[in-house]
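hey so i finally got around to running the thing on that chain from the lab meeting. sorry it took forever, my laptop kept dying and i had to restart like 3 times. anyway pasting the input first so we r on the same page abt which one it is
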Amino acid sequence: MFANVLYLVTMFIVAPMILWRMIRYGRYRRGVAEKILGLSSARAQRMRDDRECIWIHGVSVGEVNLLPGLARRLEQTRPDTQVVISTSTDTGYDLAVKHFGADRVFFCPLDFTWAVRRTLRNLAPTQLVLAELEIWPNLVRIADRQGCEVMIVNGRLSQRSASRYQRARAFTRPIFARLSWVGCQDESSLDRFAACGTPRDRLSVTGSMKFDDAPTSRTIPEVQSLAQWAGLDRSLRVWVVGSTQPGEEEMALDIYRDLRDEDRQLRLVLVPRHRERFEEVARMIRAAGLRVHRRSAGEAVAGTLPRDTVILVDTIGELRHWWGVAEIATVGGSFGRRGGQNMLEPAGYGCAVSFGPDTRNFKSIADRLIKHDAAVRVAGADDLSDFVANCLRNPHAAKSLGQSARDVVMQHRGATERTIEALNRRGSTRRSAA
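ok and heres what got predicted. didnt touch it at all, straight out
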């Protein structure tokens, strides 16, 4: 009850912002009934059959991208089970539908008791699998009470988040204690889950599934078609700046204008993180004295992309393939206070990878790449300009950096299989006990 009151108060406070975004950007409009009331029985009946149900939740695009391999292997190793997928954002939902089909995807209920109970009652899952870290009090508590195991895969818990949970330990510790199993990315996360209340015998280090998810082949049709559409032939030096936040596009544009005369083969591709900023970034490119070719326009570049034209990827879910077009990659969200984005996708393709000073969301991965001379951390615009210039002037060094990045990715694969083994082992134990 306390959690419900807290959520209602919070919703009342943020309602003006939500309403503004609904009107201005069209966000939060979809799936309102499923989010507030929970999954209906009619919708649940269309989603599942008589087999055992496993509910997997990924909050948005990054987490959803981890799920296809996991879901596929679960259904291969446990043919008597059916996997359904939930997500919380419009972009995550669209990507999940692309991977799994509309009949298996729904919006996760908000953490109100009535919405959670309705969803769990209608789905009747035996396992609830949460990707990375989605600790919702009512969801975890009610699922556990109904005999549904709650497990976290690819578990990541930063020191900052752990400290916050521990400051509210009277409220959060029982939630962590209810978790049936957590597959952690590293020992540090394992120790933090334990400190927050999860018994150590329910914790394992499985590694990061993001290594398994990282693409490694540039010859796949998705990459080849993007390069052809954009007029980016092999003679060009393509710099992709992806998952960008405010301030990062201006920085990339300034650097591009400074360096494009030094190397006439250099081309720039910008991929903003959020769709509501697409128009803003398009105006920014024009204000920089450059032309913009928008991915959403659909019309392919005629011939080779001109030097005065920047590709703006104003679509969702394509970034992982655009990294495959790049020779030089800069991962956004890392020059402000966002904590960075996934740098393993460009690393898997063998790009010369760079990122900014704030990569706390991917700390262990970023540190591992740097330790193996497989990526470069830059402090700001000047350092980033030097990095790109060095890649242009010394292509052999850039290629070596990219090969090292790809080697790190290949050496750390296997987390998905370790996770599957643990989920199946717990599933077998539960069925035997029943």
